[in-house]
Design goal:
The complex is a heterodimer.
Chain A (H helix, E strand, L loop, with lengths): L5 E5 L2 E3 L7 E4 L2 E4 L7 E3 L1 H16 L4 E8 L1 H11 L6 E6 L8 H13 L9 E6 L10 H9 L4 E10 L5 E7 L3 E7 L4 E5 L11 H16 L2 E2 L7 E6 L8 E3 L4 H13 L2
Parallel strand pairs in A: 1-6, 1-8, 6-7, 7-13, 8-12, 9-12
Antiparallel strand pairs in A: 2-5, 3-4, 9-10, 10-11
Chain B lengths: L3 E7 L8 H11 L4 E8 L3 H6 L7 E6 L8 H15 L3 E5 L2 H13 L3 E12 L2 E8 L4 E6 L5 E5 L16 E3 L11 E7 L14 E5 L14 H15 L2 E4 L1 H8 L25 E5 L5 H4 L7 E6 L13 E4 L2 H14 L1
Parallel strand pairs in B: 1-2, 1-4, 2-3, 3-9, 4-8, 5-8, 11-12, 11-13, 13-14, 14-15
Antiparallel strand pairs in B: 5-6, 6-7
Helix pairs in contact in B: 3-4, 5-8
Classes of the chains: A alpha/beta, B alpha/beta.
Bound molecules: flavin-adenine dinucleotide.
Flavin-adenine dinucleotide sits at the interface of chains B and A.
């Protein structure tokens, strides 16, 4: 059975993980120092969700992928220069902060409004994807709230695999405790999947996909609405850990001695 | 404001409460206010009695077969019903995969807020503050909220587990109607990614991290991946350590290279992996770059074996860095552990 899915992927942008991050206090609550100067990437777990979406769409004729993103437009535009070359998508851009210190509930409201604005959305074909946690707030709360707003109560988090059975049922593997997966079967859409790493490598850049996407991406960015997103929480403090350890560097020691030292340490109570 | 504190737990397969659940109860106990216990599971009376002396004024439960499994729709319905019945303003729950999936949705239904991955709770008088990390363990914030109900999911290892006597309780059963919409999803079971060897052991005293160096050309100009796999699996066997990995090594495995047959991306530690909690960690052939080391936030004692004296571990990220060949060192470590 071929189902032409409508796959809506929610994903924000975050600072490149290789950057040094430093919190600062502002009148509107905590923020990152020089946040708008930092290079950004598509939030890694949402990026996996997007790649899985594109992969599924390719296998199910007539399917389509949307990316709905709350982010500062200038950052989103930069990120789309690469992401837009990887998978065919339609962008729904919503102007708003990328900060991790915003409230999941507000971001969820903005995302849900963006999704509801997609013309011709059909719940019987809808797969709502996102990352199971962001690399900014890392709460794993936003997607559930989006799902609730859209009335989707078959939700899965920490998803590593989705497969479609002949009768259209969806088989889903979610991460649970102890390095295991829980296996569930849902009779069909609408479902919400918060993805973990999945199983796909990063797709290569495809200039042709980039050309196609870019025609619609620029207008989508131009018509981005601004979302009302607040701090929500009262932040008392945000601090970097005092984690600098005084590393003892052991050089030129015979292997035997090192091994003994490690064994003593490992086996000590 | 006088708070009504609901401790919300779910039972495990055999009807018991897990350690992390009892830790959350320990945290709930430390807060001032009226305390209510809420439990969800196939059978909850035994679990309720096991914490019967915890000082709660009421014990509420949603019980039955549909609630024996971890499923968003039924879990939300159950948790929502308990929160409403309790009139909870603060909900304290363990950060299990089951509650992490469902309780943020419950917060939305109740017009409240949820904060996850809580590592500390303090209450001074009327105000409650929680600690949690932002940007994947890079910075720690202390925060409070005016909005209620406020659902807090507590990480493991942040509190001592509640201990106390079994006592009889009056369990108030709350009915939740099971409509077809709640059971469109069937949980069919659990599976380990590679069933031959269990490598992730959350309760292990030691985290052993393998990095991509195990697969690189060594000083004889050749790769020794087979030997690496043997050394690592032998070490896991004799030490009962939990296996973590860098992203680079997992990605290599994912790309179909013959790497370590027992490794999957569930082993990955770091920014886009896990943040395990073990008292000790030993990193081998891993460079100790920031996106990896943020996953070590809760590892107390850290040592590393690396050929490079300028690797990341040397720069304040480990307590001890052994500049040595991990193949040689681990072979001797295994031999010494076997002798013991
Ligand atoms: C978006 C994003 C997210 C990321 N998330 C993560 C994450 O979650 N987790 C993560 O780990 N990384 C993550 N990274 C990648 C991270 O930046 C590093 O690239 C990665 O951690 C490097 O892995 P490694 O140290 O195993 O490999 P390498 O950098 O290749 O280091 C190998 C090390 O092995 C040592 N070595 C080689 N042979 C021996 C020997 N015989 N004995 C001793 N030492 C030896 C070398 O000296 C070297 O230090 C992320 C990167 C990005 C961009």
């Amino acid at each position: 059975m071929n189902i032409p899915y409508q796959i809506v992927v929610c994903g924000g942008v975050v600072p490149d993980p290789l950057q040094t991050l430093e919190p600062i206090a502002t009148a509107n609550g905590p923020a990152l120092k020089n946040e708008l100067l930092l290079p950004h990437v598509l939030d890694p777990w949402s990026a996996h969700a997007l790649y899985e979406a594109a992969h599924l769409a390719r296998r199910s004729a007539g399917s389509k992928v949307w990316l709905v993103s709350v982010a500062p437009k200038t950052k989103l535009q930069q990120v789309m220069m690469t992401i837009g070359q990887r998978v065919p998508l339609e962008l729904v851009a919503i102007e708003g902060p990328a900060s991790g210190f915003t409230d999941a509930a507000d971001v969820a409201a903005a995302l849900a409004a963006g999704i509801e604005g997609i013309a011709g959305l059909d719940q019987s074909r809808l797969l709502l994807f996102g990352g199971w946690e962001s690399a900014s707030r890392a709460a794993g709360a936003t997607m559930q709230m989006v799902g609730e707003r859209l009335g989707i109560i078959d939700q899965f988090q920490g998803v590593d695999e989705l497969s479609v059975a002949d009768d259209g049922a969806l088989r889903i593997l979610e991460r649970i405790e102890g390095g295991q997966h829980q296996v569930s079967v849902c009779s069909g859409p609408p479902v919400l999947l918060g993805w973990a790493t999945g199983n796909l490598p990063e797709p290569p850049n495809h200039p042709q996909i980039g050309m196609q996407n870019m025609r619609a991406i620029m207008p989508a960015l131009q018509k981005a609405r601004t979302a009302q997103i607040s701090g929500g929480a009262r932040f008392e403090s945000v601090t970097l850990p005092k984690q600098q350890r005084a590393t003892r560097i052991v050089k030129d020691k015979p292997v035997e001695e090192i091994a003994r030292e490690i064994v003593t340490w490992v086996t000590a109570e | 404001m006088a708070e009504t504190i609901l401790f919300l737990g779910h039972t495990e397969a055999a009807g018991e409460l897990s350690r992390i659940t009892l830790e959350a109860l320990g945290a709930a106990k430390s807060l001032a206010g009226e305390r209510v216990v809420g439990l969800v599971g196939r059978e909850t009376l035994h679990a309720a009695e096991s914490i019967g002396s915890c000082g709660a004024s009421r014990f509420l439960a949603v019980t039955g077969e549909p609630f024996s499994v971890s499923r968003y729709a039924t879990d939300c319905a159950a948790a929502e019903a308990i929160c409403r019945a309790a009139g909870a303003t603060i909900v304290i729950a363990p950060h299990t995969s089951r509650w992490a999936r469902s309780l943020p949705g419950v917060a939305q239904r109740l017009g409240g807020r949820a904060d996850t991955h809580i590592t500390g709770i303090t209450s001074n008088g009327s105000s409650l503050q929680v600690a949690r990390w932002f940007y994947r363990q890079r910075m720690e914030a202390l925060l409070g909220r005016a909005q209620r109900p406020w659902i807090l999911l507590l990480e493991s290892g942040c509190r001592a587990a509640w201990q106390g006597d079994t006592a009889p309780v009056t369990l108030e059963n709350i009915e939740v109607e099971i409509t077809p919409a709640l059971v469109r999803t069937t949980v069919t079971g659990k599976q380990a990614p590679r069933s031959e060897l269990q490598t992730i052991r959350p309760d292990a005293a030691l985290l052993f991290v393998a990095g991509a160096g195990w697969t690189k050309k060594q000083k004889d100009g050749a790769m020794h991946v087979g030997q690496a796999a043997e050394l690592i699996s032998r070490f896991l066997e004799v030490s009962q350590a939990s296996l973590g990995s860098s992203k680079s090594l997992v990605d290599l495995s994912g790309e179909g290279h013959a790497v370590l047959p027992f490794l999957s991306h569930l082993n990955q530690v770091g920014q886009t992996g896990s943040t395990p909690r073990h008292p000790k960690g030993l990193a081998t052939c891993c460079h100790g770059e920031e996106p990896h080391v943020v996953g070590w936030r809760f590892i107390q004692e850290r040592r590393a074996v690396n050929l490079d004296p300028n690797c990341g571990w040397a720069r304040g990220k480990a307590d001890v860095l052994y500049v040595a060949d991990a193949f040689e060192v681990m072979a001797r470590v295994n031999a010494l552990l076997e002798e013991r």
